[in-house]
Every structure is written in structure tokens, then in C-alpha cells.
Amino acid sequence: MLLRRCEDALELRVNGVFAMDTAQTSTERALARAALADCAHPDRFLLGRLGLGFTAAEILRVGDHPSGRVSGSPSTCWPPAG
Q1: Three-state SS for 14?
Q2: Angle at the Cα of 82 (from 76 to 54), degrees rounded to 5?
Q3: Closest CA to 2 of 52, 58, 48
Q4: Which of 50, 55, 68, 77 is the most buried (most CB within 10 A)?
Q5: What is the pLDDT of residues 1-17, one digit of tens each?
Q6: 56 in a domain, yes or no?
């Protein structure tokens, strides 16, 4: 995995292939809303770890006081900014 700055956005690449960036996050947010709409217990969720956090942020924003768990362990430690 590689996280790099590309103009005004951060870009996530996996095995050299573009995965997502911070310039356009509507897909991640729509995925979160669709999952909550189809969930029998939208107050609880389990979320995978790969990503930039936009799906999790949307679940927390639109959910009804959800409690959540993020699965997996960090596979990469991003360097600090600066």
C-alpha cells in the first residue's frame, strides 16, 4: 500500500493500482448509507480496515448512535505529516 500526496489530495494505491483518494469521496459515503439502509441493526456495524476513513465517518454521521468495530490490524504505518 502506498499513500501519497497528489496535487491537493491524498491518494491510496494498492499493489500500484489506484484505490481511492480524498478528492472524491461520494462513493465511500454512498456505500455507508446503502449499508445502513439495508441493515437489520443499523446501530451496530463492523467495518474493514483498508481505506481513508470516509465510510466510517459517514456511518457515524448518519447512524443512530452506532457502536462500531473496525476489523483487522493496521498493515501500514503512515509517516507523520511534514
Answers
A1: strand
A2: 50
A3: 52
A4: 55
A5: 888 888 888 888 888 89
A6: yes
